[in-house]
Design goal:
- The chain has 16 helices and eleven strands.
- The radius of gyration is 21 Å and the shape is globular.
- Strands 1, 2, 3, 4, 5 and 6 form a six-stranded antiparallel β-sheet that branches.
- With about 350 residues, it is an alpha+beta fold.
- Strand 9 and strand 10 form a beta hairpin.
Length: about 350
Amino acid sequence: MRTIYKDIHAYIVQYLSTRADVLPQAYIVLLKQLQDSLPPRPVKEVCRTIQKELGKSVDDLFSEFVETPLATASIAQVHRATLNDGRNVVVKVQHEGIKTVILEDLKNAKSIVDWIAWAEPQYDFNPMIDEWCKEAPKELDFNHEAENTRTVSKNLNYKDKRDNAAPGNAVDVFIPEVIQSSEKCLVLEYMDGIRLNDKESLDAFGVDKQKLLEEITRAYAHQIYVDGFFNGDPHPGNFLVSKEPPHRPILLDFGLTKRVSTSMKQGLAKMFLACCEVRRSFLQFCIILMKIYYSTNSLTEKAKQRIPFYALISLLFFRSLMSQIGHSGTVWSVGSYGRSTFFLCAFFFSSKEARKTS
């Protein structure tokens, strides 16, 4: 585990750490450490990167800089600091040389996947590795993450809410303000919070888990259905919960985002309106709707046959999010937003597969 942070394998392990519905608890406890608790890089390396990226030394930029990182993930680590004007911030610093390592690992992984697909055509993982190759360079540019953070914050009316003039459709979440950014450094407003999967602390602070789950779901529903621009990396390490009542979700890390076209949103909305009113055989209903949609798009039989599988995977993914915060309810207990979000997951899983197999 002490060497896994150096390469692309950390991404895979981070995904597995969210599958509390599949892996035994003993594995989940260990793998959760890789969400934001990897071994840190030396502070000298961190300070060197900051000076190179931001043009000034750590002493010139901050009145205080905490050398022990708050969190260390696969591509960067985060340090708490205080600006010269007194504002508390966090500084996200990319690991030296990690871009070269990750791109090289992706190239090697692509070669392996191509060989497997040639030897065993039924095990073709090219769609997955192609997606990683497309998105990894974006995640390695923190200017891209900064712009995404501003966009989501604006879309969710977060700035207006700070001024106590939030419109009625504002989502009740916190998003850190971007202070400064470069390709390998990102300075954000500091927000103190509880880890999403720290069940003991959530209980100690009296967090309403039902309301928390509903608000996270609502935030994603707004990003997808309304804005068509959403965070594509919602593992528990990218959420905090504010310690002060009413214990709002804190959304972090917008390095990976996705867009949904207007026509797609409109088509999905029509299906969701019908979908939210159906309670019996919900999964079967979703599959039928997807098959009807795809039957008009000349998809291959292979793509159509895989729709039920991806719908089931989506249900497991949504159920995993609930288990991460200790929520014992069902998909129905989070209301129409929850049911719609599950259906959207199923739709995207299957539509992505359809594009690759048609």
